[in-house]
Amino acid sequence: MGAYILRRLLLIIPTLLGIMIINFALVQFVPGGPVEQVLAKIQGEGDVTAGFTGGSQDLGEETFGSDSDYVGARGLPKEFIEELEREFGFDKPPLERFLTMMWNYIRFDFGESYFRSISVFDLVLEKMPVSISLGLWSTLIAYIVSIPLGIRKAVRDGTKFDTWTSGIIIGAYAIPGFLFAILLLVLFAGGSYWQIFPLRGLTSDNFDDLSLLGKIGDYFWHIALPVIASTISGFATLTLLTKNSFLDEIKKQYVMTARAKGLSESAVLYGHIFRNAMLIVIAGMPAVFIGVFFGGSIIIETVFSLDGLGRLGFEAAVQRDYPVMFGTLFFFSLIGLVIGIISDLMYVLIDPRIDFEKREG
User: Fold this and answer.
1) For the chain (length 361 residues), average pLDDT per consecutive 10?
2) Which of 10, 45, 101, 308 is deepest in the core (most CB within 10 A)?
3) So where are the chain's domains?
4) DSSP label at 72?
5) Which are the contacts of 47, defined by CB distance < 8 A and separation ≥ 6?
């Protein structure tokens, strides 16, 4: 197993490098970089991409000629543009910028945001509480509800219970998360009916003045609706996966043998079937959590006015805040690749019969 883990760890290097190269190369062809963002703000343009329609071309030709590098630079001194390029590092060729960036990232130096005057690392730490809250509680609730429900559906396969529960979870899966989030706001956050839950934020303004129990209650009071909205669509996949895993195991020979020996249905189900059927479900839990944690729901965070990693990534892409974009991409990709190895170790931990080295051989 040690050799397998070592090979997987070494494979992280080319995989991570490939991810960074592809994304860095794609960004080079995207218009509206950080220099243009600054110039658009200086000139009071609401949309940095508006200049690409050619609406202000005459002004640009009068000032610098029609071959100006930046559309937003028209009407501004050329020396100012060159100074901005040096400040953002765009006076260097792309290859040199990429190599410098990767050297810094290897040392976990992610630089500073172009537009927030804060280091990328501190910025991510600032947004993590929201993403951890959504990711942790959404994953736990989904597993706590879906696994018992999936087992019961497998045991009662084909009954009315199986039919109507399938209809409910598939219907919930079909509802867009943002639409369900808006519905929750309208019903329970003072939209048109009841003012039961707060409209925004992770905690109240007087959170520091509350007692320990008061802080816990306030935290869950604020996080209840966002967690429900982000969890609702995850029930279907996990429930049906659990059900199908149990149905597959129930039909196997060892189950018939256990029943023939006189074991009770409960002993057969939880003493023999459970461990084998839950292998794929439980082993995938780290990956599910990381997916919810890092992916974050931009729309749900926006609807409930939560400032998490989802909104951070979206705003960085819109503003072309490259240190935030590439810094978070590198860090999250690295974490995701490590989680893949942890998921494999979970398989071995749950079922020692699995040997990845023999499977590779």
Assistant:
1) 80 91 84 71 54 39 41 59 72 85 88 84 86 83 88 88 89 81 83 76 80 87 86 80 86 84 82 78 68 66 81 82 86 82 76 63 50
2) 308
3) 2-114, 121-360
4) G
5) 40
